[in-house]
## 1
Amino acid sequence: MTRVFVYQEQLDALRQRWRPGDPELSVDALGMAMDDGDVFHIYLQPPRAHFAGEPCRARVTLSGTPVAAPAGDDAPRVAVAVSPDGGVSGLVSGPAGPVEAQVQVVPVSAQLYTRSKGLLETDALAGRSVAIVGLGSGGSTIAVALAQSGIGRMVLVDRDRLEAGNVARHACGIGDLGRRKTTAVADLVHGKNPALDVVTADVDILQNPDALENAVRGTDLLIAATDSDRSRFVLNQLALDQRLPAIFGRVLTRACGGDVLRVRPFEGPCLACVYTEQFLAQRPREFSRRSEAREDAPAYVADDDLDATVQVGLASDIAPISTMMVKLALVELSRGTSGGLESLDQDLVADFYVWANRREGVYASWPQMGYEFTKPAVLRWYGANLSRNDACVSCGVAPAGADNIFANREAMA
Amino acid sequence: MWNSGQQQRLMQERMILAQYFPTLAWYNPVVRGSTYVEGVLTTNGGGRYQVRIMLPAQYPNDCPDMLVMQPALLWDAGGRPMVTASAENHTLEAIGGHTRICHYNPRFWTPQNTIYLVALKGRIWLEAYEAHRRSGRPLDDFLPHMGS
């Protein structure tokens, strides 16, 4: 049977225009036909989520009577009637004349996550918010996963637009080419969670720190999914300044593996405690584009040398890092909600985790996976017990004796 | 205005710099992204160079720039102005016509690095510059620790 989908929130908005005493209220709508006319989606407002199909005319009528067959040359292809008691009926015109369709009203949120109940308290997460900074291949998939978990509010921060080179690893597709990553991902997550309150900020976080701080302020968790160590350090400081728990993740050269760090400000290690100059030199990060490598290298490095550093991995190499970041994020966000993730919370005691995709690069000396579990092997997570560095310049205790030059702006020449 | 975390950091940096580089003074100290440290460094051979270290808005998480303000432009041993990015000379593209010293590889910059360390590297670079001018050998020969 032909199926027609209309959206609850759009019907609710239409009902508010229906004055008592009016026999009916009829409005034109956008229909999108899919699967050779087996499925139609009807939009009374411009769609907020990604959509597909062949456009056609549709009409939605609020009426006490069942839907009538459209007539005339300019008749809409799809007609939907909604009665005051909420009953719906639909007709779709085809070569053989109008046929009855099964109309389904898509709930805003109430039913989308019914299958998660008992596993995760999505109602509790609906009151939680997360800021995701960096919407590349990692950040975009994390955004989708958190939206699917029932997060209530999401702040999306990035400075870039989606280019052809991104698509193979990004959650968005070629239909989004040229768009800002923030708005493209916002549409994507709305498709997974229509009730999600999404705020976008097109910000270069190195150039516009105030805008970054304002965008993130008030959220419950920071996801740092940017592609440079400099930007990670910026986000680390932001997390410390705002006492905001943060999850950092990155992929190493050729995506041979990666690491994930959880920062609970002033309770455990911060990024600067772990990512020392020596650490970064030993575990070089991945560059997926020459422009990324150029930004991060001295100006005298030749293009040929830069090309040697641009070695991308596959989406499947990045997915484990993203998934671990989502797990850690959900544990942080659901703490105190009796959400059913207590055992995972007990397991994820480490703040720093290492993952290997392949035995190459820094993992070249690792033994083959085989059947043993007593030696390091690829495709397994390893938690490291790292402590906070008391001498850390980012989260350590400031030594006494420094003049507060900021208390008196005229203090210094 | 620098945020509170940056203010704490800059107060510490000021204390350290006053002890080890007392000739360097602070300018626009409270204006985020406009603060710079400037003063004269003197080499072992008596050369005097006025250097400026400019702090980006995201300092210490972003790498500062270091310029030689006086002499307004430095020249290499071959008589060429040092205004372009050069691995051999450890310079970057000049800013405002002033020679720009490449002191740290931005890829490995961490907030653990300090203005003191930048100033120290500038001081070493100036020694290498004078050695280069005397000998004609690439400046890089005298700076193996600063290799990219």
## 2
Amino acid sequence: MTVSMKRIYAIFQKDLKDLSKNLFVSSIVILPVLMAFMYSRMGDILDLHYLIINLTLASVTAFIQCAVIAEEKEKHTLRGLMLSPATLPEILTGKSLVSLILTIVTLVVCMMITGYEPANLVLISFVILLSCLFYLALGTLLGLLTKTVVEASVVILPFMFLFGFGSMLKPLVDDYAILGFVEYLPNTQLVELAYKIESGLGFGSLWSHLAIILTWVIVATILTIFVYRKREMDD
Amino acid sequence: MENVIEVNSLAKIFGNQTALENVSFNVKKGETLGFLGPSGSGKTTTIKILTGQLRPTSGEAHVFGLSTSSLKNKDFRKRIGVLTDNSGLYNRLSIYDNLKLYCDLYNVPTAKIDEVLRLVNLTDDQKKVVSKLSKGMLQRVLLARTLLHDPELLFLDEPTSALDPANSKHIHEGLRRLNDQGTTIFLTTHDMSEAETLCDRVAFLHKGKVQLLDEPKKLRRQYSDSTITVELKDGREIVLPGGSEGADTIYNYLSTDQVVSVHSNEPTLGDIFVDITGRELV
């Protein structure tokens, strides 16, 4: 299957223009930036840095992606794209680029505000990018499952809480066994991985975290493709 | 001539409701076929099956020789243009930006935008934001988008339903030109005059079944009662039988200069639809 960069870029360009006029959705980027300002006075605490990073991934990446997909469905424009020669990878890549770029810009701004300087910038950037893929798939999936932007904005809230603040529940896992799943959330894995990188540990200690995050990416992507295929039909 | 669409014993059932039942028809290359029927008769369902948006429950349909299960491929999509009730536009963008996206998706030069906007009478409005357009203008932009890549086969679901008579006429002229250039058109409508103006053949769809399928002229002739109405100068309207008996009477009126008009009493497509199905087309 050939992928047309021209089509991907056309969808990206359209989304960029559209989102610049949609303050309801794009203003969400203020949330992590405000949090970054608030926490910047509390010192260089890794947990706080990753609270902001995870919040950015859950709010900016997943929420914006969810809202733009839900709006395409609500306004019947997604069907227009589906009936065009654009393929599934072209449509979903094109539609993910704006969320991805906004995420990167927000993360850089937040890290500058909080003064976070990772011990291994390349590795941390790679893991955050990998996590982004999960949040993009999650946002796309929820956008495809909901009918309107308003519905999508409500449905994504528990996910934003779970993936934005879920890692903060980890200290409670010993007391409440039911919260055991928190240890396997991609956000928790990202924090643990960051701690190990800061301690100078090598790939041998990191691979299990990477594998768990990758599993989340793969499962969310498969589910997204399945639901997308279902949405191509009216049955 | 080659068939672009071939449909055999097509059926579609939603839950316990039959939307299409044993529907069979062909559309030849360069032909305009009109599907006429009231709301809920199965017109949109047929278009959705033929464009790969719905799976048939049973039966077969082929478009350009491809079965309905293979209609998702890129080359097929380049050959068709689809305008249905679930076509949408990006409200915050201008008409131009909406069409530019589709130029890029179909790899069509942006110069084509002017051409299609001329066809739908919107040349001077391309900078207008879609959210500010009237329903009729939206319909015309959607039609322009459908025509942007010069599709060989057009599926048009009620293309002029929201338009005023002047714009409908303009669109009809454009569609006739496209048809003259070889574009095949599959059209659904409940507008009789649209069907008469555009269609080479019409199919009457009622309760999911094709009740009749033929050329509009042939249908009108077939269902005509062969009478002639003569309007006289004294205000009377006289219905005469066709043939020599009526001809003699008309000759008498004509020779005494009493005639205002003479009309053969052919039924409209709407009359025939009511005759066949017992209900109005709207």
## 3
Amino acid sequence: MLQYPFRRTGSSWLEMERLRREMNRLFSGMASEAEAGVTTGYPAMNVWANEDGAIVTAELPGVAPEEMDISVVEDTLTVSGSREPVELEEGEVYHRRERGCGKFTRSFRLPFQIAADQVEAVFKKGVLQISLPRSEEDKPKKISVKSS
Amino acid sequence: MAEEKNIQVQEGQKQEVVESEAERTRAKPAFIPRVDIYETNDAVALIADMPGVDENSVDITLEKNVLTINGYVEPERPEGYSLAYAEYRVGDYQRSFTLSSEIDQENIEAKMKDGVLHLHLPKAEPTTKKIAVQSA
């Protein structure tokens, strides 16, 4: 009689998949959007990078731009702000309340010194995008080799 | 207002839509937007967080008392940059609600601001008649 150790359906496969992802994430050190989900604070941030700097994006729906505070010190970016709760008037009742509100602050350390005077932030459709150029002094020096 | 699916909200994470019968034609993931729903004396208000969606990329349909919200997001990939670290995923939004029949379906208003959808669903004049029972 033949017995299959794994059935086609069942939670053991899901568990294996989760474990595989977790291992990949730990060992590769590479980012993949498809495997995102480990959030360490609010807001969740995605970081895009190249040699000249980085672009940090964060989803902040309903946060007014004037309530946002972005600061840069050396290699650390700090984003803070708040989202006001909806004030209900008398006689109004909640059916569902899933959206969070209140104050938040998040610091993010980048692997380079940021040129603080060139930082730009755009807030569009509830998505914040901050471009953080790398400071000139921090960029790797190119050394040309002369032939004698 | 009742809802079609049971939803567990996880703190800080987007909830992905679980496929039930029909699969989606777009390969992108779809998320369940978080909502606040509250009722006033003459209306029901729905607020949904849909970052990345503007007034041109949101679709609201009402069919047989089922209100469906679809938000389409075009993922922005900064040119010349590669993704170095990711904590959240970008995708569309999708959620349906069953409305009670007492909503005035002709006068629903919707607006979109900073990635948040505001829906105003006015209550209709009651059409049901109460029948008084007389004692004999």
## 4
Amino acid sequence: MGAIREAFDFSDFPLVERIGFGIFCLFLLAFPWLGMDSFGMAVMIQFLLFSLFGMGWNTIGGYGGQVELGKAQYVGIGAYTVAVLMVRWDIPYWFSMPLGVLIALGYSFLIGYPLFRLKGHYFAIATIATSLVLQDIFINWNFVGAAKGIELPIKGNTFLYMQFTNDTYYYYFILAYFLAGVLYMNWFRKSKLGYQLRMIKIDEEAAESLGIDARWCKIKAYAIASAFVAVGGSFIAVYNLYIDPESVMHLELSIMIALMAMLGGAASLWGPIIGAAILVPLDRYLGSWLGGHKELMGVDFMIYAAIIMFIAAFEPRGIWGIVERYRGRRT
Amino acid sequence: MAFLEVRNLTKDFGGIVANNDVSFSIEEGEIVGLIGPNGAGKTTLFNCIVGYYRPDGGRVIFRGRDITGWKPFQTAREGIGRTFQLMRAAGELTALEHVMVGAFLHQEDRVEAEKEAREVLAFMGLEGVADLYLTELPLAIQKQVGLARALAIKPVLLMLDEVASGLNPTETEEMVKLLKRIHREKGITLFLIEHVMEVVMPISERVIVLDGGMKIAEGPPEEIAHDEKVIKAYLGEKYARGL
Amino acid sequence: MVLADAFIQGILMGFLFALISLGLTIIFGVMDIVNFAHGEFLMLGMYTAYCLSISLGVDPLVTLPLCGAVGALLGLVSYYGLVRYLLRGPMVAQLLGTFGLMLFLRYLAVFLWGIDYRMIKKGLLVGKSLTIGPFHLDMTKVVCALLSLVAFTVVSWIIFKTRVGKALRATSINREAASYMGIKTERMNALAWAMGGITVGIAGGLLANFYYIYPMVGLLFVMIAFATVALGGFGSIKGAFFAGILIGILETVFPIIGHLLKTSIIGPHYKMTIVYLAYFLVVVFRPRGLFGWEQ
């Protein structure tokens, strides 16, 4: 009960931010009636999805301060569980999605245990390495379609399998996940684990002196992040109806996830959402514009890279970090 | 049975012996100081007790339990609080939140933890800085927040690492007063390590002196101040520094 | 016999891996920064060799000094243009910063040359092989191994025998103390980046003689370099050398074992997996590296 009250309690935010977020939520709810074309709809869905990913990453990467660059493997686990179970045994989404999350949780504990013996760059590289290992396995694993990927059977409009012919349904579907994610994160940042993680980030030795098992806390946060991301992955499976290791497990996806949160402002509730709101449309519109200009191939990624370098060099706390500096409070 | 007992503790770093066969004990309710010149092995001994290092030999027994080789968070849960020479200040958590993290050790609920943290801050007279970030506070106050944070875990033994370093004489005096209050009102056993003798002497009931990794003297402060071996150890350092 | 052959091939590849890792370990040793863009430096070295040998019609080996120069330039520009600023921030920023650099250079290559695979087909050594007893060795790889040895000798000499090297080592041990001693640590950082750039640029020029050239090639080799440096101990030069050879052997012998055991679970398609796993296992179970003689 207390947790639910905490999740809905935004009272420590300045009034203007609460109003702003309220208006933004209304906009999100009304969006399908604003007469956007299907491209705009797709961008919006992508934005909500990446916000969800970013919020998940934020637990371990932002609040916990661990440079985690292997989230794509959990997108893959979530997506593949849904896809494989639907293709092989015709299992509905609402059974396979929770299973995928459970597998992601189990796997995250399994590799989180050795992973969090590491710190700093050792850790960052190791997260990349584990993600690449899993991608390699999926590329060579015929049961899951290997490098060719896997195509989901078309089921028409069905809530059981979460397949729709109209994007509006998908939109509200991911919006529900997004809002649940925001509420969860609003609880998380004020939870015992949330505070403990920030203490670990500031000074791990001091955190331990306060009775905090730093490694265990990080493993828990990592598992939460993985579950978040796996949920997003399960959405990709039913939304795209086709997945392959290249699209759901690639290193670039891991980078994008971390980047969105960093750009917007890690360790803040709004940060990942702001990051996704900037990067996803940029990515989409730039991508579609560049699609017509073959000679400019690669420019989109050069722009992201320039943004990353700029943020890292001059404002490591991201866009929201600038706002927080002015308002003098972190939330 | 002693409250904290260190038996024949030895720690060496690849051939360099930092602690050699150190034994002593502390009784419940005491204030004990640990002094010694630079490089005497004070910090190493400290870290062996709280668990940052694993001793190579000997035992640490706390309230009848063998805690040798326990991890720092385990010794903290057992009731050993500690402060650090330096607070790593970051604009991430406020003073209140720092103390709340301590209170979270035995408190799941945020509201309760906050209430406890405010009580600790009030006890220390720090209500005024509760909502400020550590980066906004002067060093002396930062150190007090560190102390409050350690108190919030409700320790029975508080180990203080160079609590006066970086403080001016007035601030030091205030800190000493605060420590005495903590000892008196909360009944917490204090164990201070200090480089500067002047800080430890007026507050400690008993002083242990380390030099070259070994215990060279132990006794009441007045006695220690006139102990030949101790004077030599400190003088030796002064001569070495060319004073 | 197959195994022995693979073993020798592995050692030859290992010399190259060692050379690639050399720059990474120097930069890390001096300033505790992992350069994620290291593989992209290598890739640009490869393209330098490719473009020059095609456009000027010279042998790819002649371009090596220029590859080194391009590498040095890259290192210096990266240092003065980016890394200097990153040093002021938290470690997260340092990691992401060089990560950004990696992406930038990779897609710069995509922009400039497209995503096609290229290969140098003409050259003094291309396609030639050396036969010693029953073993056929690629001439390019033999030359590569020799040059790697030379590079290690030169770098070791600079670092352990010269005044500049002494200053570099002092900086790596204690930056503050070094600056009190009058060492311009900023310049030492730049020097480390330049040295890292030169060695990896040359490695790229050599690699271009017998490996596909494409914009994403960096990732593969940077992961190998990470594994190598982790194995040898971050910051250790000797470590990088022996670990490189070890990884080379691991990477070539491993698929052969699968072949001999007639199993598809162990096979060439998992060649990289084994390198990633090696990295993971080493850093988890022996963080100081296998050799771990330098802190």
